[in-house]
Specification:
alpha/beta; two-stranded antiparallel ribbon; binds NADP nicotinamide-adenine-dinucleotide phosphate; Rossmann fold; globular
């Protein structure tokens, strides 16, 4: 039997769609799944593509079915399962075979796995895949980390299956060992912020303006034709207009207001904190999900405090307020993306990856969950200034922020006065206000630290006077 060019382990939601995508692009692929019945079912349902697929019942049979040197994609549950699967696979592999972990791994695990295989003759690639089920089937955004040599070997097949933005493939090699999974993690952190901000605007429209789900869907549909054009706004419109077949009510109105999370958002925040980068909008989004999950506590607190009385807007022009909400979302989104890219810039230095910012923005323009027109503008901004300190200060984005920050201010004020929670929008505004103010307030913090801990401080005038004249009670 003709051997396969590539193998894939894990026929869950992502793996099965990725395997069909690979087969459809004319590649012969061997597949294996821990539970063999799933492999049989998968091949039986593959239709015309089954001719390009070799279903294997054992790991040995699977490895034997692939032509060496073998690229093998592992698309299974992240964590220990990947180590277990790699251990089962290794005895059957030969020199130059490549194991490609395509799940949502913690990039620190990826570095560990990469290092462990370094001198074994085998190669490891950590590959972030975004786009969910649909992306995996028809074109995901793919973020690759590993050696450049191993990337060159898998580049043709990954290019063939990736999403395309104006014919430009949304796949790239981003750096050594954990670079691909790190960038995927930050992608997800930004995704958390994006989703949270859209949900906060939905909250203002629902609870502040009293709009129905479908009317809010219309607003999002309108915005999707403009500056906010993006996959997340597009699906928000669709979700808001869907009807529950059981009750006939809008679907969103019968869904519990409690969102789960798997880890990538939290990892983004932890790594940002580790590197001393302010990623406040992403932090707010992760905290927002945590608070959302504490539903019983929230219901109990509402009984104690009630909700604040409504404060009407001074200007009752509804259309103007909708325009403000659209601009506010854009302004806050800029801050969230600026933070995500700042985290990646810091990691690039800390881990020696030389992460290519314009390339990252470029491969996020299609295929992934945060895909948008906006990312094309980020690509242009970073292409002109790849080493800029912060996206916000590039000419294109500083103009956008100047045009929209007033709206964000009005929207956050309205939400605060009405007790509508907007943690991501307000933290984005505070981030911008802190970032653009030359004279901040940490002079007082320096003085306090010197008072109680004799930590010393720096002076504006450079005079060498290490401690303040604090008098009694000071350290
Ligand atoms: P899924 O549908 O739940 O499938 C999980 C797969 O992992 C199954 O094939 C399962 O095999 C296998 N598996 C679980 N434990 C295993 C073990 N100990 N040893 C070997 N195989 C094991 O998951 P999924 O949504 O496809 O996600 C796969 C990976 O992609 C995860 O890392 C996920 O975070 C990531 N990812 C998911 C999405 C998404 O939108 N779903 C998007 C991007 C990335 P059995 O059939 O034998 O149980």
């Amino acid at each position: 039997m003709q051997k396969a060019e590539i193998g894939l382990i894990g026929l869950g939601v992502m793996g099965s769609n990725l395997a069909l995508n690979i087969a459809e692009k004319g590649n012969r692929i061997a597949v294996f799944n821990r539970t063999p019945a799933r492999t049989q079912e998968f091949v039986a349902e593959a239709g015309a593509l089954a001719g390009n697929i070799i279903g294997c019942a054992t790991v040995e049979e699977f490895v034997e079915a692939i032509r060496p040197p073998r690229p093998i994609i592992i698309m299974i549950k992240a964590g220990d399962a990947v180590d277990q699967q790699m251990d089962l696979l290794k005895p059957y592999l030969s020199a130059n075979d490549i194991m490609i972990d395509a799940g949502n791994a913690n990039f620190r695990d990826t570095i560990r796995r990469f290092d462990a295989l370094k001198d074994s003759g085998l190669t490891f690639i950590g590959m972030g895949v975004s786009g969910g089920e649909e992306g995996a089937r028809h074109g995901p955004s793919i973020m690759v980390g590993g050696t450049e040599e191993s990337w060159k070997r898998v580049e043709p097949v990954l290019t063939s299956i990736s999403a395309k933005f104006n014919d430009d493939p949304c796949v790239a090699w981003l750096g050594n060992d954990g670079a691909g999974h790190f960038v995927k993690t930050i992608h997800n952190g930004i995704e958390y912020a994006d989703m949270q901000m859209i949900a906060e605007i939905y909250g203002i429209l629902r609870d502040g303006l009293g709009m129905s789900a479908s009317a809010i869907g219309d607003v999002f549909g309108q915005w999707n034709t403009g500056r906010l054009n993006s996959y997340l706004i597009e699906i928000s419109e669709k979700v808001l207009k869907a009807t529950d077949p059981v009750t006939g009510k809008p679907m969103v109105d019968v869904i519990l207001d409690s969102a789960g999370q798997k880890g990538t958002g939290k990892w983004s925040v932890i790594e940002a904190q580790n590197m001393g980068v302010a990623a406040t909008a992403i932090e707010a989004a992760v905290a927002g999900r945590v608070l959302s999950s504490q539903r019983q506590e929230r219901l109990a607190a509402e009984k104690i405090f009630g909700l604040p009385p409504k404060v009407e807007r001074k200007n009752h022009d509804g259309m103007a307020f909708l325009a403000d909400l659209e601009s506010a979302l854009l302004a806050a989104k800029i801050a969230a993306y600026a933070q995500g890219f700042a985290v990646m810039a810091a990691a690039s230095k800390d881990f020696g990856w030389s992460l290519p910012m314009p390339t990252i923005a470029r491969i996020w323009r299609a295929g992934c969950i945060i895909r948008s027109q906006f990312l094309d503008e980020i690509t242009s901004a970073f292409t002109k200034e790849p080493d800029v300190a912060n996206l916000i200060v590039t000419p294109a984005f500083s103009k956008m922020v100047k045009d929209t920050d007033g709206a964000l201010r009005r929207v956050v004020s309205y939400a605060a006065l009405n007790g509508l929670p907007v943690p991501a929008l307000s933290s984005a505004l505070s981030y911008f206000d802190s970032y653009r103010r030359g004279r901040g307030t940490a002079n007082l913090i320096q003085a306090q630290r010197d008072f109680f801990g004799a930590h010393g401080f720096e002076r504006l005038d450079g005079v060498d006077r290490p401690h303040g004249p604090w008098g009694s009670g000071a350290a």
